What we know:
The protein is an all-alpha fold. 75% of the residues lie in helices and 0% in strands. The chain has one domain.
Amino acid sequence: MNEILDVGLEITRWLQQNYPWLRGFMAFMSQMGRFEFYLVLVPIIYWAIDKQLGRSLTYILTFSDVTNNLLKHAFRGPRPYWLDQSVGLSSESTSYGIPSGHSQTAFIIYLYLAIWLRRRWVWALA
């Protein structure tokens, strides 16, 4: 596990040093994985697009969040800036870093939307 974390730290340092302009973009994208974002998005989907889709996303996101928290406490994986202070951070979190809640949420949402929309191009994007 340490080798994987070391490689991840090296990649993060390299990206931060060579592409500093990505930091703002990544911080913006990270906001789209926050609970507050979905607290606004899901009701809009429910009221304006499709009630069943909104309800399903609520169940899926709740299940994903509970599962992610259980896995975080099982793996107890550190966040990159816990291991190396030179790795910058856009927001400080006190929870464990592995598995990534943002990655898990994105995967779940894109997979569900691909299933719901039943379009090949959505599967390719997901």
